[in-house]
Amino acid sequence: MSTLAIVGAGPQLGREIGRRFAAEGIDVALIARSRTTLQAVADDLSDTGVRAEAFPADVTDRPALHAALTAVEERLGPIDILEYSPAPSLADLRRAPLVEATKVTVDSVLAQLDLYLLGGVAAVQHVLPGMLERGTGTILVSSGAGSGPVIAPHVANVQIATGGMRNWILNLHAALSGTGVYAAHVAIAAFIGQGGHDSQPQTIADAYWRLHTERTEAELVIQDLPDDYLERSLADKFVEP
């Protein structure tokens, strides 16, 4: 039985990705900071017939992330599929605000690099050697589409970090050709759960399953933004009431 590790698992997309892969008999490991949120998602997946377990860790704490991924391997077996999609909390945004393009500073970029790029590198490099040794594996890294396909100047400091991650994953996709290991980037231009059919978590989770099974595309762009996306700036879940 295969194991999927979702790093940055949340109650929307993370839960639906877990449910989609669990429907295919794949065990699910959920990694994020909040034990309460993770356990609620794990409990929600309890009817799928597979093992779904929570492994709390902060991706910016590299030893903790390494320990969580190691615990996954010890409890559920080798990680065959890695999905990396961290998102900031409101507390993160207060501590490290989003910055538009003309106001980017070194300090405003460093926290974003830590969350998106460096956390992603650490997660991928934890699982990649084992995948290469086994000759099989899938790595799916997600970010907002401002990482490349869409211009989003109001969140420029984030896009510096996610753009770097996107570039690396596209290069990793090419470098892994012929190894049996597949890597792809998912650029999400949508307010997940708030827009039309293409913005719904279940629809996006189906797209992740297609990437994993078809193993051809280096990148999938999910485009379902409203015309006023620059004015709205953030998904509702990041806006305090």
UniProtKB/TrEMBL annotation:
SUPFAM superfamilies: NAD(P)-binding Rossmann-fold domains. InterPro entries: NAD(P)-bd_dom_sf, SDR_fam. This is SDR family NAD(P)-dependent oxidoreductase.
